[in-house]
């Protein structure tokens, strides 16, 4: 009854047309640069994008000519419900368990920091007890401020050694369908060990199980993300027809060639281990030897990603942001440039390509007529200095609403 009342309220609010005209000194629309751009936004969508265009009578004019406009960025791998308040005598991995509703409420802080980084859409991969679907739905209802969320619910592992499971292949297919039936947009598979200070990559889900999950999920019209730190799980994830491959390191040339041939998206998440390295002592209090292991993995991860780029693999930005890592969501862009991408290619890996990965290429990832008005203003020119998109976000619009504005602060 309560949910029905909320929905009724959401749909019975009076519709009012809100027209905004946004002026940029320069706009990169996802594909090309438009000087002196004027973007007309009506309600939540872009109506037109022109150079020195006419402004409709009565439109609210937003003058951002000091800045460069870019599409709202997309972080393809987050854990936005992983919240830590920094309390003394706790670490992110050693803190009291909370009720899911409390976690969802507190995680608004992560959501707001994500928006402040210029990220208007995330794909969130692994959350307990429906916390991610709750956040997604609250944001979509306008009851919570945050990025658009595409969620996976709780990730799946192997059922081969679970008590009472006699047919692990059938069970994995059943669980994949149950994940989608439970409200998830994607299915996440933990195909190997690895996470936090653990940089092992031992395969934990068989090819047959991966294939059963992929087939069952695709039959519902949804997609699968497969986590594998190591090369064996990555090879089988590609063979099984997963839609995205997360983290994979030490892949051989043949595996990389197959990844490119099948046009599966690769989300290397190089920077997330850099984040762990920086926070190893102060925040996480990882055991001795962790930093050396992380440093070694980062280098191998980087070299694998470099080879993948050279082989024509479609790569997209994912921060794997957790706990106190939100707000730095786009640091991966610097790694993408370092491994050989042009600044524009790196930016497309955070806009155009992840929009396609989400099946939203006609509504997200570009500033164009008919697309959601997800637009970011940065200080400087990210096509010349990628750091502008990483560290100098000054203004963010999501769905036609201004959700971040520090332009006055940056003007002084």
Structurally, the number of domains stands at 2
The CATH topology name of the largest domain reads: TIM Barrel
Spatial order of strands in the largest sheet: 3-2-1-4-12-13-14
Shape: globular
CATH architecture label of the largest domain: Alpha-Beta Barrel
Average of pLDDT? 95
Which radius of gyration do the C-alpha atoms yield?
Answer: 21 Å
CATH superfamily of the largest domain: Metal-dependent hydrolases
CATH class of the largest domain: Alpha Beta
How many E-type strands? Answer: 14
Helix and strand pattern: HEEEEEHHEHEHEHEHEHEHHHHHEHEEH
Strand share of the residues? 15-25%
Helix tally equals 15
Whole-Å distance between the termini? 51 Å
Q: Based on helices, strands and strand pairing, what is the structural class?
A: alpha/beta
Unreliable stretches: 1-16
How does the major sheet shape up?
A: 7 strands, mixed
Helix content: 25-40%
